[in-house]
Amino acid sequence: MIKLADRGNRISPSMTFAIASKAKAMKAQGVDVCDFSVGEPDFNTPELMREAAKAALDAGKTKYTPTAGLPELRSAIAEKLRRDNGLTYDPEQVMVTVGGKQALFNTLMVLLNPGDEAIVPTPAWVTYPEIVKLTGAKAVFVTTDEALGFKLSAQQLADAVTPRTRALILNSPCNPTGAVYTAQEIKALAEVVVEQQIVVISDEIYEKLIYDGLEHLSIGSLDDEIRKLTVTCSGFSKAFAATGWRLGFAAGPTTVIKAATALQSHSTSGATTFAQYGALAALQAASLKKTVEEMRTTFQARRDLIVSELEQISGLTCKMPRGAFYAFPNISQTGLDSMTFCEQLLDTEQVATVPGVAFGADSNIRISYAADTATLREGLARLHRFVASLG
Ligand SMILES: Cc1ncc(COP(=O)(O)O)c(C=O)c1O
């Protein structure tokens, strides 16, 4: 039998993709599944972006681009970061990647040595610890308090730092909790980062999906000191409903971007050429602001619906998510662990959700509200019936 390398044995498959695949397979068999497992917008990619990619394809834009991306797209991303986020990066400090995931992967691969520690506030997106594992470093999990909105405090960060700490992975708005850090909270974390001279990997992929008038603040925009210690990672999947395009980016200090580009030159070679032209058009079109805002408003209405329905279910409690498109209700009063809860819910009521244990929180489940209102209502009615049946 072929023996895997230690690396191959260490890596775990994505639990969110596993549940989504099971739900998809059930749907393919004709089962009426309410699928709340997926982390992708249910909208189509805006027409303007699709048309620009099609035009690029027809114009023969089918060859390699430079590894770090089309120069004009790198400039457009630098401009977007300046305009929307107050971040000053030269285009050379920006790289285009195959999804936001590869931006994170490249960055962590060139920053972490075996034996280093990366602080991961939990609940956290499933991919962070797996990438950290691949680098040979150790993910140090810091459990955030549900009562305080699942946010890492400056004190918790300071307490978690050791001489081996190299990085903090910060995700606001957060998948799976929907937590959004306030300016004050970000500033307090930045102070610790600067004091300890660690690096922040700031995953801002949900930055456009924020509710209740809250505003996104990029940690790297606070001042020069923190900017030099920050790598900002993001992408087009969520804001432009473009998950399948596989387009993301990282922006940060030149040394990091150069090394990450070299890594990319020997892995994917870069993002798909005609997709990059679509992204360029999307960033340059003022009209898309309106489209993105419409999606945001729709998500906020769905968030309101789902939270108010969850409040009616005795046995569940739910912190108000302020961003992204997930609710993360607490199921501990049911007495079930999150995996059993999700499996039984899928088997008995055909509702697909993701067990919180995948994110390091076994008392919760993740419900994606990237689904239409009718499906949300039906799924929540089934969830209600399921919880009631547990007695
Ligand atoms: C928190 C977070 N970061 C990054 C990503 C990566 O997205 P993509 O690789 O599709 O751009 C995701 C996708 O689900 C995510 O939830």
Q: What ligands can be seen in this structure? A: pyridoxal-5'-phosphate
Strand order of the largest sheet: 2-8-7-6-5-3-4
Q: Report the β-strand fraction as a percent range.
A: 5-15%
Count of individual beta strands: 12
Q: Under the CATH scheme, which architecture of the largest domain would be assigned?
A: 3-Layer(aba) Sandwich
Q: Enumerate how many helices there are, as a single number.
A: 14
For the record, give the distance between the C-alpha atoms at the N and C termini, rounded to a whole number: 49 Å
Radius of gyration: 21 Å
Q: Mind sketching the topology for me?
A:
Blueprint: H1 6-10, H2 15-28, E1 34-35, H3 47-58, H4 71-85, E2 94-97, H5 99-111, E3 117-122, H6 127-135, E4 138-143, H7 154-160, E5 165-171, H8 183-196, E6 199-203, H9 224-227, E7 230-235, E8 248-251, H10 254-265, H11 273-284, H12 287-311, E9 326-327, H13 338-349, E10 351-352, E11 354-355, E12 365-368, H14 373-389
Parallel strand pairs: 1-10, 3-4, 3-5, 5-6, 6-7
Antiparallel strand pairs: 2-8, 7-8, 9-12, 11-12
Helix pairs in contact: 3-11, 4-11, 5-6, 5-10, 7-8, 12-14
Bound molecules: pyridoxal-5'-phosphate.
Pyridoxal-5'-phosphate binds next to helix 5.
